[in-house]
Design brief:
Elements lengths: L2 E12 L8 E15 L8 E4 L15 H12 L7 E7 L9 H16 L6 H12 L5 H6 L2 E8 L4 E7 L6 E8 L5 H6 L7 H20 L2 H7 L6 H4 L6 H10 L4 E4 L6 E6 L3 H14 L4 E5 L8 E6 L7
Length: 319
Amino acid sequence: MPLISSVIVPATTANLGPGFDCIGAALSIYNQFEFVCSEEPIPEGFKIHVPGSQGAKVSKDEDNLVYQSFCYLYEQLEQTPPSVEIKIQMSIPLERGLGSSATAIIGGLLGANQLAGTPLNTQEILQLAIAIEGHPDNIVPALLGGCRLAVANPQPQREEWQICEIPWHQSLVPIVAVPNFTLSTAQARSVLPPEVSRSDAIFNASRLALLVKALETGDTRQLSLALQDKIHQPYRQLLIPGYQMVRLAALEAGACELVISGAGPTLLAIAKYNIAQEVANAMQEAWTAEGITTQVRPLHLDKQGARSRREMVSRRRTR
């Protein structure tokens, strides 16, 4: 009977204003991955299926990030990857600042770990995932769920990470506005200055400290101040048409503040639950007025993170 590993990984939003490259939160949108090791070997060693509208944008070759991550885990175990059929169901849009690459990495690693008999624990998976991605802000919440702060702790042999959970008040709702255009991380990073001034560093450090407190208490006045940033958003917003109009509409509807999700172009507002839909409607109307089609919706904080399971399935299994 075929051995199957199923993995579900949430979307993530990173930075949250002043938390550049160190803070992220898991959101209630998901990508699903299924890894099937059949009794009959696949000639190429793997096969990748990605149905839906985004399928054409995803590589089905060896450079597929899910498959690369799958093989990377077996390399760390010094084992040969088995022949595998990978089926990917995508609900998280590509290159929109919602952590799609993090889901691919976590999906590939967890799928491989399950099929290998779970030789690695969560912390070991986390270290491998950060090594592949290069930074922790999306990886950590995608795997662990919730809102997380990741702090580098350099060691002689390797860099380790101190992970801290940031409580998120239940009254606060994340609202995402996903436009119909993409923005690559490379492009978003290219506009950032190589250095920041002391005053800007102090500006961000003080607001990140306040952000931790405001998210825990749900204090909207503090949160409005805490989500401000001078390190990345002033530069990246110039790459996002209609940014100022959407932000103004969100604030007028009662949002605490609006930030760029990850590298963008998705915009994220945070508001109290009783006005979340009003804020979403205002953001939708503002971008529509700019001639940009967008999907806007209130979400929930995903507290569980990635989940996986392994099973033996009869050949008669139907879908």
